[in-house]
Amino acid sequence: MGFLKNQFSNVVEWNENGAGVLFYKWQNQEIKKGSRLIIRPGQDAVFLYNGRVEGIFEDDGDYDIESDIIPFLTTLKSFKFGFNTPLRAEVLFINTKELLVKWGTKNAINLQAPGLPGGMPVRAFGTFNCRVVEHDVVIEKLAGIRQTYTVEDVKERIIASLDQLLMSWISREGRDMFNLQADARNIAKGIEADLDMDMRKLGIGISGFTIESFSYPEEIKKMQEKAAAQSMVGDMGRYTQMAAADGMARGNRGGSGLAADMVGMQMGMAMGQQMMNQMNMGGAGAPAQSGMAAQGSGAGPKFCPNCGTPTTGSKFCGNCGNMLF
Length: 325
Hints:
Strand order of the largest sheet: 6-5-9-2-13
Strand content: 15-25%
Structural class: alpha+beta
Number of domains: 4
Number of strands: 14
Number of helices: 9
Helix content: 25-40%
Distance between the termini: 133 Å
Shape: rod-shaped
Order of helices and strands: HEEEEEEEHEEEEEHEHHEHHHH
CATH superfamily of the largest domain: Band 7 domain
Radius of gyration: 42 Å
């Protein structure tokens, strides 16, 4: 007889083989004499009979259903197992742990931005935390028609409403559309409250919502980089710093390339200054011509061809030291 008892008995349990499952309905509805109930840490077991909740068991452990469970069921306290009379009931296992889920916008969200008539397309990424908070609501709204309910189901519902929530919370208080990351925390807190209110209608709470990053189009990124670069070019010191940083970023020219750039810039400035000095002397053409004529006749030039200073018959210019013969 003990052999027959073992043949008919079963174990009511949930191994949680699938990750991210919020609840699981035990499939075999016939609980036979000698069956046992195993509740693992982070699980609650709910007994359902004819669609009604008969008892909720929250303490993890290994229980004999006939002696440890049935006496606590509302309408089944006097149920007696017979040789051919199994208990026809459903057992719903609920995951009580908090689960972390990654999310991301499916499509870019067009936000109103100054200077962009069509709006600025923005994507966002982050995480949220969810857990079952109301057993009765989950049973009423979901368990009657679902065998399981997963975080992917929660994520699908959240993503469906996330675009409107992002647009609503980003557009408040005149936020800078080009620097949303600076206010990501406040935006996330507002969205978390709205999502929690919506998901509690299904018995599921949202206990955390974060925005890790906002993603802008490449064109916007390039404009931001260009604007930042232009703001640096205010004086020669800033230009030098920017040129040095650019040379190091390229990494293919090294210090010699940067030095060549700076030498070229200094030569250009010196040549410009020399031309201005010659123009202030009344024109560089006349002194140069007289000097050439003097050289042709064997006498030195009357004016230095380099700086225009009178030579007074000397072989070297007294101002710049230039050789006159």
